[in-house]
Amino acid sequence: MKFVYLEDVATADVAFKAEGKNLNELFENAAMATAETLANTKTIKQKVIKRVSIEEEDIEQMLYAFLSEIVYLKDADLLFFSKFDVTINNGKLVARMYGEKVNDQIELRTDVKAVTMYMLKVENKKDKCCATVVLDL
Amino acid sequence: MTDVPKEIKKISDHIWEIPKTYKKGMNVSARIYASEKLLNGMDKGVFEQVTNVACLPGIKKHAFCMPDGHWGYGFPIGGVAAFDMEKGVISPGGIGFDINCGMRLITTNLSLKEVQPKLKPLVDFLFQRVPTGVGAKGFLRITEDKFKDIITQGASWCAENGYARKEDIQRIEEYGCIKGADSRAVSEKAIKRGIKQTGTLGSGNHYLEIQTASNIFRPEIAKRFGITKPNQIVIMVHCGSRGFGHQVASEYLVTFNKVMKDLNLGVKDRELACAPFKSKEGQDYYKAMACAANLAFVNRQVILHRVRECFSETFSKDPEDMGLDLVYDVAHNIAKVEKHNIDGSKEEVIVHRKGATRAFGPGMPELTKLYRDVGQPVIIGGSMETGSHLLVGTETAMNETFGSTAHGSGRTMSRTKAKQMVQGDELQRKMENNGIYVKAATMSGLAEEAGLAYKDISDVVDTLEKSGISKRVVALKPIGNIKG
Predict the structure, then answer these.
(1) What is the pTM of this model?
(2) Smallest CA–CA separation between A73 and chain B, in Å?
(3) Do A52 and A25 meet the contact criterion of CB atoms below 8 Å apart?
(4) ipTM value of the model?
């Protein structure tokens, strides 16, 4: 499982649980869950690469900041993404995000106002990492 | 099965109190305005969250929840709380991510008979001219400096730049400008995120609706608000500060969580992070929130300008000849410094309303002279299938709830569940058969907003009327809707 949307966590909004075999994969899958909420990622071509780097000791705050970046770029640069490469090392995240500017070919879904801190949790275990995230729509 | 705590006490048929003893740390009791039926239907988040709010420093009288209350982030939706200016706090969770999300109502002198034949082209035209949904761009092309002017001046900028009639400004809460807005408290990112979006509706439950006056309850007051006859056409707009406000809220949530950690304030819920109102962080957030609130007033005003253009082209008449007068614009996600009677004397407090509307009664000096003798118009939006209401603020609201009332009907079903139960295209056809023509950015988005996902608005409005915190003026029925 990469991610699954959770029922009845946030009535008016969207909640998901993402997994990965390590933190990098977890962050990539959480990013995909966020991107899928905004648009059908199968319809987004990978024409633009956007680099993002975040320094943050707290892993939950790092996830909040990273997903907030996807939400930010959707409005500031009208960019939508369908692939993410994430590397996390010693409190530093570097990500390459692949996507394109909004156009008629992209099947848009719903707007996300913000990533919330409600129930925001990252579990970092030896063989599996998982996170729950709630997005405010 | 109900989630109502057993400690709850009945104060009257429509007021319920959770005592201070319910939870450790409560500074005041919590009061919920609801009929027994609405109370029993409330989710347990409401009781948990309204009592969390009651624990915040400097809270006055009670933590309130309105009849449309449901679980939110930090405060419940429908939450109202006032805090001491010196000892109290400000909390982004008491305002919401969509700062100054609000409602606006516009009257016309057109009848249903006149509009019906042109309804479809009119709705199609509005859908084309008022951008909706994710990824939409507004039509205002502005520089960063101009954007900074807009967020500090609010709606008066629209009047100076040809997007408002002079009299529109009189009919906006706080005359469309929250004082104290300072663009220096706003990040570059927030500006970049919002600069292209002025004049866009957004997504989710935001909409622009053509409605008819279906039932006039208080004709004298309705007349003052510009509604004189049954089936008169009005327009309702529901939207907020778009990405700009969302970014302000997201960034200050991080700041406030750090402040909470530094001040060693135990955090019950990260979404309920707060800072002393008079602290640097508290003041910075207030200045930034005021900027976002002003942008939302501008956003709704620019949309009204577009509405006037669309009506004018569709009916080949001057907008003035069709009325298209603003009745009022109210914020329902905001914090404001207001004067209220507390324990017999007037006191300045910082009132938070989250999914709650100001409902000032007659005689309040803050109200425009136009409505000062009758009270403030209150606009309550229902689901797109069930209709909406125009009410008026009351003295009871002034005495009991810091001049506050409900804001809408409140969701009861998740978006995912609504989509499983309803197909967007089927709903569109069903609505059309019921006389409502709807255009939506996406069919799945439409399904999420189906009437069955919301509380019955008539129960909410009935509670407001019976508890006296607002009075019914006109019931409004949708005939055309565009949504994001």
Answers:
(1) 0.96
(2) 8
(3) no
(4) 0.93
